[in-house]
UniProtKB/TrEMBL annotation:
Residues 26-364 form the Protein-glutamine gamma-glutamyltransferase TgpA N-terminal domain. The keyword Transmembrane helix applies. This is Protein-glutamine gamma-glutamyltransferase TgpA N-terminal domain-containing protein. Keywords: Membrane, Transmembrane, Transmembrane helix. It comes from Caldanaerobius fijiensis DSM 17918. The chain crosses the membrane at residues 5-23, 29-47, 54-73, 100-120, 125-142, 148-165, 177-195.
Length: 372
């Protein structure tokens, strides 16, 4: 097989491995076949863009003028802002399920595919491409994406094969040699992967302690002898248990109500995976009229109570409520809720955002107080 085609296929393989690791880290809904399809498409686009840069620039300008402009300066600019805010929150560990994960995944596939092809094939900057890939895997692994370790091993194996092919003086390469080399690399890397990885290497304790004292954030990373970052304040998603917590004294929200006693609820998690409590299934539905059906029996006595909530010093899409909300009044009238009555706004909100929630409060059998 011609040398250039082998190098092209190997460059696609390198990009695909990184994209698979990115997909795992983002909890992307795409299967490996779909990730491979996107990788091939974006690599082919990279070939065309780098081969015809001026035509590609003109086409990009046309697309921007007639398609992207409304998303940046027109009515749809709010979508882009919410997408950016959500991406930052998602990368910070606040796992949320909504449609933004799809454009974020495709965007990352495109960036990785273009970068790897440009550095490896077009610019002949093999070491920069490999270094970039290893940095991505390292950042993911420090962010508790366990699969990143495995993908890094196979990325290194494919990179070594690419390097050997690139250094081959012949223009026609024996595919049999490449096949045996790939098998040997996979076996070696696989054997290395199943070996115990919890054996700590030689460390310089004084230097390690100095780094942790100088940069306290490294204590929240993997290898900092804690399970993961955690905070005592408000959290949008599940957090890994174990280790010291980071104090957060920010005001989350303000409540205005006429009720004498009031208990607000948080998310309920029903599954423990050994590290984190989370929901075994979440099904969100879009609500545009603000009305939520009452789940109590008609024989249950109670009354409706309205509370006005104003967001504090946080940025979130969580809407706070008491148990059994029946009506939510927000500025644009659209939100999402799940079967456990968790409420989320269709976008990020910040300090000063106000909304009203009406909920059904049952009467206590022993007292007249509300039992929420």
């Amino acid at each position: 097989m011609a040398k250039k085609w082998i190098m092209f296929i190997l460059s696609i393989s390198m990009a695909f491995i990184i994209n698979m690791s990115i997909s795992k880290g983002l909890a992307s809904p795409y299967a490996p076949v779909a990730v491979l399809f996107f990788t091939i498409i974006f690599v082919l686009l990279a070939v065309g863009i780098l081969k015809y840069p001026w035509y590609s620039l003109a086409l990009a300008g046309y697309v921007f003028a007639f398609t992207a402009y409304p998303y940046l300066y027109g009515e749809k600019s709010k979508y882009v802002k919410n997408f950016i805010n959500w991406s930052i929150a998602y990368a910070s560990g606040n796992e949320q399920i909504n449609s933004y994960i799809i454009p974020l995944s495709i965007f990352m596939y495109a960036v990785i595919s273009f970068t790897i092809y440009a550095f490896v094939v077009k610019l002949k900057a093999f070491y920069i491409a490999v270094g970039t890939g290893i940095c991505i895997f390292a950042i993911q692994w420090y962010g508790f994406v366990d699969h990143a370790y495995t993908y890094m091993l196979y990325f290194i194996a494919v990179s070594l094969i690419y390097y050997a092919v690139a250094k081959c003086p012949d223009q026609v390469v024996d595919t049999g040699i490449i096949g045996w080399g790939l098998i040997a690399s996979v076996v070696i890397m696989g054997t290395f992967h199943i070996m115990p990885v919890n054996v700590k290497p030689v460390s310089w304790q004084p230097l390690d302690q100095w780094v942790q004292d100088t940069f306290p954030i490294v204590r929240t990373w993997r290898g900092g002898d804690i399970a993961g970052p955690a905070t005592t304040g408000f959290s949008e998603g599940p957090q890994r248990l174990g280790g010291p917590a980071v104090a957060d004294d920010r005001v989350v929200f303000y409540v205005k109500t006429t009720a004498e006693s009031l208990y607000l609820r948080g998310a309920v998690y029903d599954t423990y995976d050994g590290k984190t409590w989370k929901n075994s299934h979440e099904k969100w539905t879009v609500n545009r009229d603000g009305i939520i059906p009452l789940t109590y029996s008609k024989n249950v006595r109670g009354r409706n109570i309205s509370i006005e909530i104003m967001e504090g010093q946080i940025k979130t899409n969580v809407l706070f409520s008491a148990l059994q909300p029946i009506y939510v009044k927000i500025p644009d009238g659209t939100f999402i809720n799940d079967e456990d009555m968790q409420l989320r706004y269709n976008g990020q909100v910040s300090s000063g955002f106000k909304y009203t929630v009406t909920f059904f409060s049952t009467y206590s059998r022993s007292k007249g107080d509300e039992n929420l």
